[in-house]
C-alpha cells in the first residue's frame, strides 16, 4: 500500500496558480491563447481580462452574438455611424464586422437600448479643475467640443456661464461644471435611438475624454463599474421622465484631485 505524498510546506494553491500562469504565457507565445481562459477558469484564477491579449475592451451585442472590439475599432465604428446619420463621410471601418455597424446604426429591433459597452479605467493624478467662462471645466468643455465635431448642433443644457447652483440633485456634477445634458425631445422611439448613438459614442471615447458617467433611458454606464456594462438607473421619481433621463443623455467627467 502506497502512502499519499503530502505537499511540501509552501506548495499551496499559489504555486499551482503560478504554474498555470506560466503555461498561459507559453500558450500566448505560441499562438494558442484561445486555450488560456479555460486553464485560468479551471485553476480558479480571476484576472483582469484587460491585462490579457485576447480580451478586447469593448463589445457589441449584434442580436446574433457578441462581437469584441478594440478601443480603436469602437471609436471608429461609433464615429462612422454618427457621421453617417448626418450625411457625412466617416472614418474607415474596414475590418469591423458589418453586423456591428448595423446594430450601432439601427439599434435593437424590438426596443431602443444599449448595444455597445466598453471597459474603462479612471485616470490617477488628474487635477481638480475650476469653471471656465463657459460654466464648464476644461475637461467637460473638451467633451462638448468633441461631441460637436461629430454630432454637429445639439440641444444642450445643464450648464451656463458662471455656473449653476439649482435644478439638479444634491452633489450633482452639474454644480461643479463637470456635466452636460444633450436633449432628445420629445421622448419617442426615434429620439431614443438617436440618443443611443451619442451614448455609445461617449462610452467608446470615455477613457480618452476622462468621462466618469453616461446616463440615458433608464440606464447608466460608470467608468469605475464599467466591467459590468450598462446598469439600471434608479430615478428618485419613476414617473418623471427628466429624472429618469428619458429625454436627455447626461455625461459628466472625472472630478480629479484624488
Largest sheet: 6 strands, antiparallel
From the alpha carbons, calculate the radius of gyration and give it in angstroms. 22 Å
Instruction: Report the helical percentage.
Output: 25-40%
What low-confidence regions span 5 or more consecutive residues with pLDDT below 50? 1-11, 27-38, 46-53
Q: What sequence of helices (H) and strands (E) makes up the elements?
A: HHEEHHEHEEHHEEEE
Count of β-strands: 9
Provide a short characterization of the protein structure:
It comes from Streptomonospora nanhaiensis. The chain is an alpha+beta fold and 258 residues long. It has two domains: 1-55, no CATH class; 56-258, no CATH class.
Task: Describe the protein's architecture and organization.
- This is ARB-07466-like C-terminal domain-containing protein.
- InterPro entries: ARB_07466-like_C (IPR058593).
- It holds the Pfam family VldE.
- The protein is α+β, with helices and mostly antiparallel strands and 258 residues long.
- It has two domains: 1-55, no CATH class; 56-258, no CATH class.
- It is 32% helix and 14% strand.
- The protein has seven helices and nine strands, in the order ααββααβαββααββββ.
- It has helices at residues 13-29, 36-42, 71-85, 98-106, 138-151, 189-204, 206-209, and strands at 58-61, 66-69, 116-118, 156-157, 179-183, 211-216, 219-222, 231-232, 248-253.
- The strands form two sheets. A six-stranded antiparallel β-sheet has the order 4-5-9-6-7-8. Strands 2-1-3 form a three-stranded antiparallel β-sheet.
- α3 (71-85) packs across α4 (98-106) and α3 packs antiparallel against α6.
- Mean pLDDT is 85; it is low at 1-11, 27-38 and 46-53.
